[in-house]
Design a protein that fits this description.
Two copies of one chain form a homodimer. Chain A has 323 residues and is of the alpha/beta class. In chain A, 51% of the residues lie in helices and 17% in strands. At the A-B interface, α7, α8, α9, α10 and α11 of A face α7, α8, α9, α10 and α11 of B. Chains A, B: Residues 2-283 form the Prephenate/arogenate dehydrogenase domain.
């Protein structure tokens, strides 16, 4: 099993370090915070240059787990000290990471990653080896992704307990704009509209407002880094929301009828619940035949996951929705 | 203690019947569903005409607890059989109820009500005597509301375990548009935008999307009745949301910066949390001096509640926010 060098040991990076170690891999990390606590937990912490030199020497996979604004700086170091390493990341937005890799570490063998797991607490102290158990973990399969790099990164994600969702950088960013970044923007809009109603409105707020504004309590800096980093895709999602809300406004003003809006929303939520309640079918993809990356992307597009490998076969599960 | 006649014995009406009985009041009801179950639970169920005749004879307070589209029909019956009764309702939107009262039962002594309690299950089977414990319960105090009617309805709400929020019909409808109806519209828009992302997006949806779309799983007919019944106030709230979302769109497209949007939303949610964590100061309102209805409305405008009466004094609590 390939060794793992994790750069950035907050909630996600720390959990990758712990999970990969629990899977039996040799691990070490670099961090700008909590180094003593990581060491006290029994893990090797090196400064970034040394961590990357060791990655080159031991042919480790390097996992970038720093916030997006710090990614390019880490990539420069990788270009200097481990320029041909196997590389992935666990940063939310994928487009800017791909651009940074092309610019600063173009000779690495890269497949981007995004584990869909988290919790409200942050930092090393909140990290845990089981954070990814059962979670979806995107590993990007673009036209120019090397199949062996993709597979090795997918194996790391599976070792950490996750199921792997193969998709492109662009499709990932478009999807998370809709289901992760747009929810933050709409929660902020709703919270501001409610607060504009003054103490009377807040005193009457019940579950619908509480749920709809929950993520507005997240630290603004984190939300901004996430949303602004996915600017182009989020703009499309916001335009979609503006169009739908504008249609609701028009219907309310003209006929007073919100049926199309409310029923489309109900259908959307029912689709989510149906997806989550779906049965699972098994499928296998031969990684030696045809266009395996395209086959893998089709699994992701259908809401499926890669859950393991058997020789040259990738083992997949696909949701089976009731008719 | 005045007897209570509840018309409509679903979740809310059934819970009023149970709570008022538990407070020691004589109660009976009328219902189009579950009459056998209500009787089996030990309560008197009459047909609507007889229930209202008994209300007239025993000088009971009549509580309208039917869905908004059925309110006018009940009001006609009240005009026929108990035209001068003390009257309230527990329907969400207040404007259309006030209009119906003026048209069909203008001689009743009316103060509108809206208990801010509920749960996802509906119907008599879901009702419980403790549903309103600690909840806010709006009792409308308009310019033409009779103080003694307001007080008696408030006493019923307090007997049911709630704290009473005094405000006007118009201010109530504006507030619930922001904190109850707009959340449903935005949840519907978000759910539709997410589902438009297909199975890939649904497979990546985590907490922010799940929370933000939770109320989109409500029965569309109930949501439509609620939202469409509050058309004018909801239109204002939707316009506010459209303006804020449009501003976010413009900022994202021009500078890419969402700071104003995200920080205003964070401040709004912080205001909600601060309100809920606030300490409580006591206040008293002399119902025999000055303009007591205006004093009561000021309590509601400050996020306060009436929690009891002592002779001619109304006892209030007001939130005390940390500086």
């Amino acid at each position: 099993m390939r060794a793992v060098c994790v750069v950035g040991l907050g909630l996600i990076g720390g959990s990758v370090l712990r999970a990969a170690a629990a899977a039996g891999r040799t691990v070490w990390g670099a961090t700008t915070a909590d180094a003593d606590a990581v060491t006290a937990a029994g893990f090797d912490v090196l400064d970034l240059d040394k961590a990357l030199k060791r990655a080159r020497k031991e042919d480790a996979v390097v996992v970038i787990a720093v916030p997006l604004p710090s990614v390019d700086g880490v990539l420069r170091k990788i270009g200097d000290f481990a320029p041909r390493c196997l590389l992935t990341d666990v940063v939310s937005v994928k487009g800017p990471v791909v651009e940074g890799v092309a610019r600063f570490a173009p000779e690495t063998r890269f497949a981007g990653g995004h584990p869909m797991a988290g919790k409200s607490a942050s930092g090393w102290a909140a990290s845990e080896a089981t954070l990814f158990t059962g979670a979806a973990w995107v590993v990007t399969a673009d036209e120019d992704t090397a199949l062996d790099a993709w597979r090795e990164v997918a194996e790391l994600a599976i070792d950490c307990g996750a199921g792997v969702v193969p998709t492109t950088t662009q499709e990932h960013d478009a999807a998370v704009a809709r289901i992760s970044h747009l929810p933050h923007v709409l929660a902020a809009v709703l919270a501001a509209c409610g607060a504009d109603g003054g103490p009377l409105a807040l005193s009457l707020a019940a579950g619908s407002f509480t749920d709809g504004t929950r993520v507005a309590s997240s630290r603004p800096e984190l939300v901004l880094a996430m949303c602004e980093g996915n600017r182009a895709a989020l703009l499309e999602a916001v335009d979609d929301a503006l169009g739908k809300l504008g249609a609701a406004r028009g219907a309310l003003a003209s006929t007073g009828a919100l049926s199309a809006t409310i029923r489309a929303g109900h259908a959307g939520r029912v689709a989510l619940d149906a997806y989550r309640a779906a049965g699972q079918a098994q499928a296998m993809i031969d990684l030696t035949a045809g266009d395996p990356l395209e086959e893998l992307r089709l699994i992701g597009a259908q809401g499926g996951r890669i859950v393991g490998f058997d020789g040259d076969l990738a083992l997949a599960t696909l949701p089976v929705l009731p008719d």
